[in-house]
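protien #1 (seq + structre)
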Amino acid sequence: MDSRELAEFRTVLDEICRWFAFEVGEYLGGVEVVLEHHVNRLVPLGASQLDSGWCAERGFREPSSQLYNDIRVNYRQKLRGKQLLQCLVRLLSAKGRSSKFSRANLLEIAAKSNEHKRLDSLAGAVRQRLHGREES
């Protein structure tokens, strides 16, 4: 991402963290939550804040700052990967971008990334478990 895209990513991420913190707060309060929203529904293309229509429809209230900050600081562990991927696709496949990346492209890049150091270990454990079952 270039610096403009990175700034937009951070802006959208902040809003997605606000939404998610709201939903977590609702869940903790015993209210049914809705997590199946697409990022573009929550923060429409060209916008930098949660959609006012969605907020009114959902009864959105600002989440506690403690909950929001926890999710924002730890978004890689606390947000749904599906929404993070949607944020990346939104930016990296944008109209006018010279090099575009689809959802499938980004999933392939992630799967082949060296950051998955435990992947070989996990694959070995799965093979061992499957092999052990075949012998039983």
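ok now protien #2
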Amino acid sequence: MKKAMPVRLLLLSMVLITACGMQAQKEPPAGVQANEAMARAVAQSLVNRNFDAARADFDSAMQSGLSNEKLEEVWNQYAGPLGAFKDFGQTYIEYVGTAPCIFIPCNFENGGLVVQVTQDAQGTRVTGLFLRPPGFSLL
């Protein structure tokens, strides 16, 4: 039952995006700033298992909704079976409305996953964090 929750959240987020008529795009909307360095720091902190640091730039909703313990549990569930971390792949950015979604591929000895860090339009706060399958795109 625990594994079904992230899938339900993913499906719900895709339904909400579709229902709002928003489509992902590669070009940033006017005035929107993605902070790639912040997103990479989140991914690096996850790989280093430093969950306090990973949560440092979370907005208040993320801070209250995703504790260190829960973040560690989810990371262990998805990254744990993949073995030792090898390296990061090429980062890519997509936009949904005014939300920059920064994707950081993580390569492990037994596979990979993509850390998606969604930010506010100014690129100052993390408003969403998702672990996606390799090659994931919103487009």
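The domain at 33-132 is CATH 3.10.450.590 (Nuclear Transport Factor 2; Chain: A,).
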